[in-house]
């Protein structure tokens, strides 16, 4: 999966490189910096002594030594001073320059902490927004697996407004918590049924019952499969395969399997990821999901969150995954 948000200790993540939120000397410190130096061993410090430090927003690379990662990319985040001293650009540069180094070294995977959100005091929700934006832009043009590593729930925070908006949206629609949701719809259904008879002409001819399809009909005239519908929609939208699987947060190897297998059965998160990439409306999303044997349910928080973003016209899959992670739901693209 190109971008995955995970809870873990970054020193234990198996990736080609992990990113160290370092101080300008690169000689170790507290927090993530100190943990990485301790786990890597004294050899890391010896190599760092040869680098001559690092400026804020820039990045330098060393070996990983005793870490599971082959390399450590050291970057220096900005100290938060109220947002008036170019902090946002400098933080974005940390991610951009680290990703550029990973690409230069032909790395296939990289793991980031949330840079500057510890002792440097950068507001977590704003730091997260910058991280997701820069990483997302990079992944729309490049093939690489990127992990955003958070140590615990307290270190991960989406904006308070977005969280409260989604929570309210879920509360209004979640059937298990609101059984009256179903009850309120039963009279409407009954009314429609009654009115359909009330306005029927007595002399109207009775329609002949539609013949049920036989087994031979079903076998000889198969419905459009998920794979066929997906490829048709890609053509209709005038998009390339690469545009679609990157916007869907899907690995190109998985997309290749789907393209080659007309009967491929995706996971629900994969099917929805493609609906998001193609910017389908709710009806189109339901139709695509149906081809894979899924639906959207008012009794599933995951489904309601997806519906919230589609109804609000937000098809940024990385921002959607932010919200899903915050609500302890599976991420799209898995």
Description:
The protein folds into 2 domains: 155 residues, 3-Layer(aba) Sandwich (Leucine Aminopeptidase, subunit E, domain 1); 132 residues, no CATH class. The protein is built from 15 helices and 6 strands. The chain has a 6-stranded mixed beta sheet, with helices on both faces. The longest helix has 18 residues. It is globular, with a radius of gyration of 25 Å.
Give the tags.
2 domains; 334 residues; alpha/beta; Leucine Aminopeptidase, subunit E, domain 1; 10% strand; single chain
What's the helix count?
Answer: 15
Helix content: 40-55%
Could you tell me the radius of gyration in angstroms? 25 Å
Going across the biggest sheet, name each strand in turn.
1-6-5-2-4-3
How far the N terminus sits from the C terminus, by CA atoms, comes to: 6 Å
Query: What's the CATH class label of the largest domain?
Result: Alpha Beta
Order of helices and strands: EEHHEEHEHEHHHHHHHHHHH
Share of residues in strands: 5-15%
**CATH topology type of the largest domain:** Leucine Aminopeptidase, subunit E, domain 1
The CATH homologous superfamily of the largest domain is termed Leucine Aminopeptidase, subunit E, domain 1
Q: Runs with pLDDT <50, length 5+?
A: 177-208, 217-221
User: Main sheet?
Assistant: 6 strands, mixed
By DSSP, the count of extended strands is 6
Give the rounded overall mean pLDDT: 86
- Domain count: 2
CATH architecture heading of the largest domain: 3-Layer(aba) Sandwich
Structural class: alpha/beta
